[in-house]
Amino acid sequence: MGKNSKRIKPSAKEEKQGKKVLWIIGVSALILMVVLLVAGSLWSA
């Protein structure tokens, strides 16, 4: 049981899924930012 046994290159499917998750997180963060900006401007008005 060498140290390299756990360093298996991720398959293309896993890589694609990871990128999809990162993309969803990014879009969610942008939407949250817009909602907070709109809520803040409504609150101060």
Report on the biggest sheet: none
What is the first-to-last residue Cα distance? 65 Å
Q: Tell me the Rg in angstroms.
A: 20 Å
Portion in beta strands: under 5%
The low-confidence parts are: none
Number of strands: 0
Shape: rod-shaped
Fraction of residues in helix: over 70%
| Average pLDDT for all residues | 86
Sheet/helix structural class: mainly alpha
Number of helices: 1
Secondary-structure element pattern, one letter each = H
Quick structural overview:
This protein is mostly helical. It has 1 helix and no strands. The longest helix has 33 residues, at 12-44.
Your description of this structure?
By secondary structure, the chain is an all-alpha fold. Helix content is 73%, strand content 0%. It has 1 helix and no strands. It has one helix at residues 12-44. The longest helix is centred in the middle third of the chain and has 33 residues, at 12-44. The radius of gyration is 20 Å and the shape is rod-shaped. The model has no long low-confidence stretch (mean pLDDT 86).
Question: What is this structure's SSE topology?
Answer:
Blueprint: H1 12-44
Task: Supply database-style keywords.
45 residues; mainly alpha; 1 helix
